[in-house]
TrEMBL record:
Protein name: Ribbon-helix-helix protein, CopG family
Domain Ribbon-helix-helix protein CopG: 6-40
SUPFAM superfamilies in UniProt: Ribbon-helix-helix
Domain of life from the UniProt record: Bacteria
Gene3D superfamilies in the cross-refs: Met repressor-like
Organism: Citricoccus nitrophenolicus
Length: 84
């Protein structure tokens, strides 16, 4: 697959959302933005459950309040799987 670099200007609030998501999910900025574009244009992507979404929001809030206490996303997902 061919890859092209694109420079994008984002409002501060969108940039902050991307940065928070990539910190919690341990993903690159490009991965987060690519998923957002795929979602926007209708390509099938992973859809978190309400419980997973709530855990992600809680993790984003915790990461902002206490960055040194970040959990690895695989640990968070494993914890969610164990609840089922």
């Amino acid at each position: 697959m061919a890859v092209r670099k694109v420079a994008v200007t984002l409002p501060e609030e969108l940039y902050d959302l991307v940065e928070r998501a990539r910190a919690v999910e341990h993903r690159s900025r490009s991965e987060v933005i690519q998923e957002a574009l795929r979602t926007h244009f209708g390509e099938a992507t992973y859809r978190p459950t309400d419980e997973e979404r709530a855990a992600l929001v809680a993790a984003l809030d915790a990461a902002q309040a206490e960055p040194e206490a970040l959990q690895d996303w695989s640990e968070v997902r494993a914890g969610l799987r164990n609840r089922r």
